[in-house]
Records
---
Amino acid sequence: MFDFRFFEIYRSSEYMNLLLDGILISSGLSIASGIIGFLIAFILAASIYWKIKPLNYLSICWIDFIRNTPLIVQLFFVTFGLPLIFQYVWPFWAHALLALTINFTGYFGEILRSGFNSTPNSQLEAAYSLNLDKLTIFRKIVLPHTLIKMFPSLSSQFIFIFLTTGIISEIGVNDLTHAGLYIDSRTFRTFEIFIVLSILYVALSLSFKASLEFVFNKTLKKRM
Amino acid sequence: MQELLINIFDKPLGIIIAQLVSATRFTVYLSLIAFVGGGIIALLITFLRIYPSKILNFLSFSYVWLFQSLPLLMLLFLIGLGIPRFVGQDFDPWYAASISLIVFTSAYLAEVWRGAILAIPKGQWEGAAALNLNFLQTLRLIIIPQVYRYSIAPTVSFLIQIIKGTSLAYIIGFQDLMLLGKRWANSPVIGSEPFIIFPIMAVLYFCLCYPLAIYAKQLEKKYSIEN
């Protein structure tokens, strides 16, 4: 009864290909939505920082709402609700990309907002006394400060959301979890395949962590 | 309550909302189980993490590292589907969901609390050693009263993560708000379309989480001014 049969997984080239595709799709979707989400979150946080009137209240509500609802509810609403309202047909991965992007905007927006607000007052006063205009202050002082200070939070948030992306398999995206469930339904080696998946997820998140650190060292560290 | 909701929202929607609201209580129960159970284990892990013994430190470090890098979804699959298949016996989804969430919670809370302990200046430990207090006395008299202030706000905000995490438990058949809502959204009843059900569920989750978020923010403000 107690037997481990990992060979059923790694001997079959079909399963290995599925897992490889799953890795590519999972990480690709996470990276793409992370980048788009970061750009949108930047706009939201900047609108709050500059107090652009209607937009900043909307951004605060948006960020609070996204951060206080589960990703899976957002995912299901985006996948099954929105297409019914607006009458469009997208492939599954596009829905997943949209839902993940929405989720990222909320979390990144909050991190960037608190980063913008945490710029030391003395630096801002020094900039005012040099008669720098608002845009230059933002570009030269607030932004580098925020990016350097908030990079660890941003990267750990990215990894945290990457670890929850497994639920996009629920809407039929061929990601890593989906590959695992497929192999499970073919071989009935449930315990083994989920151990394999766990190892893959841990390895992926570690490599994300290492590469984000590499990017940080290459770009921002010399400005510290 | 159901009659009142039917009076307000009319037939299908009133019943759906009443059912969703009553299913929310299982989400709350599971969150509480995870928080209390995970909190107790996290206390133990944190204690082992700072206890002056290399082996215990390493063990608790590996526990935290392992379960922080495992996705909650994989924990649910492993405990809810994998282990029952492995030992050839079915698990109640309640047990599987509780165990997974307790493990998940304990790893994160232990990390939060260890961070709070590290935030305490070294001089406090040295002062305690100079007063000839032993390890337990130092913890009880000096460290814990200070750690409390650092850790209460992040602990409350982690509770939000737990509540959101319970929504994943439907995957192994745990009957909560998520599963019921998904069932209603899939049903062919007119008035239970996905674009009506999922916003209602989002609002219910929001009502659970947002007060905690506000409370955490207040605590943060309170203790940051005092320091």
Note: The interface with chain B takes residues 1-2, 64-65, 67-74, 76-77, 80-82, 84-85, 163-164, 166-167, 170, 177, 180, 184, 188, 190-191, 194-195, 197-198, 201-202, 205-206 of chain A (CB under 8 Å).
---
Amino acid sequence: MGFISYLIDGISLGSVYALIALGYTMVYGIAKMLNFAHGDVIMIGGYTVYTIVSTMGLSPWLGMAASVVVCTVLGVAVEKIAYKPLRMASPLAVLITAIGVSYFLQNMGLLIFTASPKAFTSVVSISNIKLADGALNISGVTLVTIITCIIIMIALMFFIKKTKAGRAMVAVSEDKGAALLMGIDVNSTISLTFAIGSGLAAVAGFLLCSAYPTLTPYTGAMPGIKAFVAAVFGGIGSIPGAFIGGILLGIIEILSKAYISSQLSDAIVFLVLILVLLIKPTGILGKEIHEKV
Amino acid sequence: MAILEVNNLSISFGGLMAVNDFGLNIEEGQLYGLIGPNGAGKTTVFNLLTGVYKPDQGRVILDGKELTGKNTIEINQEGIARTFQNIRLFSQLSVLDNVKVGLHNDYTYSTIEGILRLPRYKKTEKLMTERAMELLEVFGLADEAEYLASNLPYGKQRKLEMARALATNPKLLLLDEPAAGMNPNETAELMENIKFVRDKFKMTILLIEHDMKLVAGICEKLTVLNFGKVLAEGETSAVLHDPKVITAYLGE
Amino acid sequence: MRDKKLNKTFKNNLITYLIVIISYALVQAMILSGNLSSLMQGLLVPICTYVIMALALNLVVGVLGELSLGHAGFMCVGAFSSAFFSKLTLEAIPNAGLRFFLALLIGAVCAAIFGIIIGIPVLRLKGDYLAIVTLAFGEIIKNFINVMYVGKDSNGFHFSIKDVASLNMEDDGLVIINGAQGITGTPTDSNFTIGVLLILFTLFVVLNLTNSRTGRAIMSIRDNRIAAESVGINITKYKLMAFAISAGLAGIGGVLYAHNLSTLTALPKNFGYNMSIMFLVFVVLGGIGNMRGSIIAAVVLTLLPELLRGLSDYRMLIYAVVLIAMMIFTSAPSMIEYREKIMAKFGKNKVSKEAE
């Protein structure tokens, strides 16, 4: 039973990674940039919930809604202020700017909430579920996280396949110039992508903090990097890839913590990433690109 | 004797036969043209000859040596050099350094000697510069030796590519549309350059070209490619008057 | 024509060397006249380390044209291998100079070997994929050192990835690497003067390499891989060579860093991916491929937070804003256009066509 409970924990952590990775992968697909600051949006989302629920004593539902709104606005604002002027610049310049934004958000958090960890009150009030005569104990957070991730994933696929805005996103990521010629508003499509990505990061943020309830200005950094790894793992730019990559990463991390070494779990995660890329250089579901001679 | 011998070379991409049973014989010192409508597979032939693509079947023999299955670097060392249809220069290097990269394998010293500036570094670099300047002189590029390659005008970039290819001291030079984008004056000058290179370096040249004035003006023999297959081959004037060739170009 | 070009490169390089030497003299004068706070003095060796790291990384990013986010890992290898050596031979080699020289060799060679081991599989990946894989390797190296226990007793070396007790040493055993506690008691053999000498050495290697046959081959791969192959350049060999040399130089940075501290630990703040990113920031802000720029950026950006210390809590926030503003100012197409317009107004728009 131990194995199954670890597996479920892994899927739950992986769901969080998947939600963050979706933001990474969508932004990469559409703006061809690595948004290094994406992980820090999680932290901002976490602090928003903390402020509303723990400091102001209001309802968790209000906290979650506010968190999604704050992160969405933040994501769009960052894109407009910092990334948009650099849209035609070299990828490295954009990468460094994203790093600057990441520093900015972290230090903003540091300034307002200080470095001392805050105890996060879980937004999930469902009690644990006992299965198989109590041998298998699944926490409410775990269950909610997995279900939320699946619902979001389905909704996102539906949005992209069936709505005009979703198809515009696909068009812009395939060929920006052609999309422009077809009358698609590229600017608002990019804004929408950042909005969705950041909104998902907010959801990931309060789910992550509910499961691991300490909140510091650096809370988002490592999950951000891991989600980035998950996105690459699944094939960056691919939405199902981000989902698969995230889930696999979560499972690998929890299982290696449980069975190999808790200190080496990060190393193992990274090692698996390297092995996958060596076998399939563009990730599990990534498209191969050939250069024409 | 033939310096280049190609027999039933074929490659397909996803079921489409891009080059089908292609054959070619070029004598030493010949100026040979490969022509055909757009999409006939001419550049694919170059990519097969230089190892960019591996042929599904067929053989390539250069100066009696089997080249089939070798990679680009080995093929260059065996003696085939090329230029590209879409110019590929080392854009952030100077014109001179572009040619010096071409001299890389013939003029050597170790990395350590280079870092420590040992005598062999100085001697070799001097020889390289001399040789590179000679080549630039041939194409009238000597005055621009210190320019960044990307700052050269279009016509001169094409010439620099030829100079760089020649720097590898090849037996066979492949030119992929050398006159593309040139005005009539530049093309006339290029024709002189190509003939000069052939005569001075006793070079064998195979070129792809759409400019029929250039082809008729300098090529001694032609092969016409259509839908990946050889449509006609022989003396230039005979091929150009072949009704089959005219139809392929002008349509029915 | 030829002489002009040679002179120009030579002059450019000379200026870079001179900037380093003059800065060194100025700092020494400030120390002697008591005008440099002890806080600043403590920063001197780290600054030298960061300059070396920026130069080493610029070889990969600027000259080879590939992105690495794992250079802190190579620095970590250099630091730990050399500190290991120095602690082990503390008594056997009493001469600090000789010991440090050997430590340098060991650190550089170990880091270069790691560069080759990592380079062989990963250098066929491109762009962002290479970036994430190098980041991953850097983290793996840091992670492994944190669980590594190495000791030595009369029977030889003992190794474990569990704890000190599992080393099973005799009573005379000496723990050299103590897991997350790292290496304590490293002789502090490095100082500011050595740091500057190592900067000059790194500069010498990078600049001379760039202006040689090997350097040209590396840059030809950066500019056009397919064309480089067509003239017979061995892509794998030169990519690997650039990567290994860069890793070796980063190892030297690590040796310098390690021998400035008596306790060496592999914490994220020393050797984590954030450090690799910081080195990349130096390289990009200093100008990709521009060695002088890397030096200046590394110094200025390391000092900036210290100079902003008066602003206490706001300093890192300002640093972040400065970073973003600088990137937009130097790289945004609209800004470049705007700058050119202003330059044209003052008649300074004579764009030299000559190759730098």
Note: Chain A has one domain: 2-223.
